[in-house]
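Section: protein folds

Sequence with per-residue tokens
===
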Amino acid sequence: MSAILDDLALLSVTGAADAFAKGEAKAEALVSACLARIDAHDVKVNSVIRLDREAALEAAQALDKARAAGEKPGPLAGVPMMHKDMYYRAGKVSTCGSKIRRDFKPSVTATVLQRLDAAGAIDMGTLNMAEFAQNPTGHNAHYGDCHNPWSLPYCTGGSSSGSGAGVAARFFACALGSDTGGSIRLPAGICGVTGIKGTQTRVPRTGVMPLSFSMDNVGPLTRTARDAARVMTVISGADGTDQTAAPESVPDYEAALTGDISGLRIAVPREWFFYKADDIVVKTFEAALEVLKARGATVDYVSAPSLAAIGTYTAVISRVEGATIHANWMREHPGDYAIHLSGRLFGGYAIPGHYYLEALSRRGPLLRQFCKEAMADYDIVATPTLRMRVPTLAETDIDKDAEANWARHMVVSANTRPFNYLGLPTVSIPVGFDDRGLPVGMQLSARPFGEAKALKVADAYQRDTDWHARVPTL
């Protein structure tokens, strides 16, 4: 691959969009660069399920012609993207990472894809994912496991495995993921990229495969906080076809990225998020806090309410709602599920209805308690994205060795799940590498609809560090 193509593939969302808008790069060249990088390296990473090569090049050529004719480009014009294979595009196969939907062609296009199209983004196809988005490590028995581009034997995090790995590998500038228990933030933290889960209901979910009615979130994985801000501005906001989408107006998230966080107060909850945490994770996280302090933020360690109940409530909700969504398939095609997923879904049928209702009813009170005790005088809650060092694929493959790997499997998402139950906007950014060269991530959470504040802190950190700019050697 030529140096010019390689350089174009390394451009971020804002870098690619701005280069196209200024006439410094053609959309066709941007797409060609990403396609060349996929051709050269995805045989090792296994991030792609469907590559729409010709359609992407045709869309890029149309953009180039429109720009040459004097049309004003959209905020994402020319930016190559691919998305988790659960975002429906009418007439295109969407497998949802499953055997059951291997040939499924939806009749609708997801609202978020329509918004990205309107902003000029170029969709190049779909990405590997955990089966039906129900796995925090990214294993997939049907399409093969996705590999971490920093070190191939290691997991990518899930369930948006191809999204995290592909953005890290510079196969495309942005990928949509979904986040029900951490499935955007885990691949972001484990693959060394930026990922954001907005406030529950911030982004419409029409045309997106459901996992849990109560906790599903749509969001991007990108290189930088600025990239995430631009994409979130495009995809957020009420949608007439999704009655759960919040009516709150959408700010210009990118405009909030001033770099000034002086006087901002950050809380670090002591208990849950550091339980048996690996020393290298804690040390790297604390070094990241020092960067924020140097920019004028105040950091305090605080006590937070017990989150053990939240872990239980999250499991109850996701299993009951997952079992409800999959009821017909579980009756008709039980053998078509991976072993771990079949066990998870069948378990949902054994949970009494009053447990499910209790889990739902406690969300409001526990959110108020968390905001009162952990965020009372603070703007942001900061935590490690993952307590442990990145595990290998073998260490987290519960289909092959459930007894040995189940505990580690659950610890992977221990720090991300609470923010789904609480519905709080949370961004994960890379803050360093461990002793084996694998990424370490930090989560920044804000009050409901405080995405701009979380992104502002993330961007301020990235102005003084270069972890997000480092590229794995493939």
Q: What stands out?
A: Residues 273 and 408 are 15 Å apart (CA to CA). DSSP finds 17 helices and eleven strands in the chain. The first strand starts at residue 48 and ends at 51. The chain has a mean pLDDT of 95.
